[in-house]
Specification:
By secondary structure, the chain is an alpha+beta fold. It folds into two domains: 55 residues; 114 residues, TTHA0068-like (Hyaluronidase domain-like, Orthogonal Bundle). It is built from five helices and four strands. Strand 2 and strand 3 form a beta hairpin. The longest helix has 26 residues. The termini are far apart.
């Protein structure tokens, strides 16, 4: 049996249709996102209300984000700008899986920061705040965050710029390492 992942963006309240597998609802400042799996695409006809966007993804086998550092960083920028923190998390996770040492630790804390935003979107404010503060404290200790830490949703622009600055620096480091290995 094929399994499909359905992602629907709404401007108003949304509920999963009957038969949806593992439904999640994430709320951003401009839309609500319904994310679920199904074995029957006919379920799409049961979606209520007017939606902004509908994505259907074949879930056989489970998707993995490929490692392509430049593409991962570009996707990260796009996703974080659209408050699609789950997808930004996936892009950084691909980098994390291919890193080591200090960079692995920093990337792990970026993943936790993005997870804190997902927890907020899923109406889990306490765990969101805890993950946010823990990850930001560690990022500040590593010098990535210069300002005072202030919990916010969505991520403040200065935090996003700091993360992007680090990812570009990390990309240059990785390319230098590749060049050393080739020579």
């Amino acid at each position: 049996m094929s399994l499909w992942r359905i992602i629907v963006k709404y401007r108003e309240q949304c509920d999963p249709p009957k038969g949806a597998i593992s439904p999640l609802i994430r709320t951003t400042s401009t839309y609500r996102e319904l994310d679920f799996k199904t074995g029957d695409l006919c379920i799409i006809g049961e979606l209520k209300g007017n939606y902004i966007r509908l994505d259907i993804i074949n879930w056989d086998p489970p998707e993995e984000v490929p490692y392509d550092l430049d593409r991962n960083i570009e996707n990260f920028k796009k996703y974080i700008g659209n408050e699609e923190y789950w997808y930004a998390h996936e892009e950084v996770e691909a980098m994390w899986l291919n890193s080591e040492g200090e960079h692995k630790e920093i990337l792990q804390n970026i993943i936790l920061l993005l997870a804190s935003m997902v927890h907020y979107q899923m109406n889990r404010p306490e765990s969101s705040r805890r993950l946010f503060m823990d990850s930001m404290k560690k990022l500040k200790e590593r010098g990535l965050i210069q300002s005072e830490i202030e919990y916010s949703y969505p991520l403040r622009r200065e935090y996003v710029l700091s993360l992007l600055s680090y990812l570009h620096k990390y990309s240059r480091y990785e390319k230098n390492e590749e060049n050393k290995a080739e020579n």
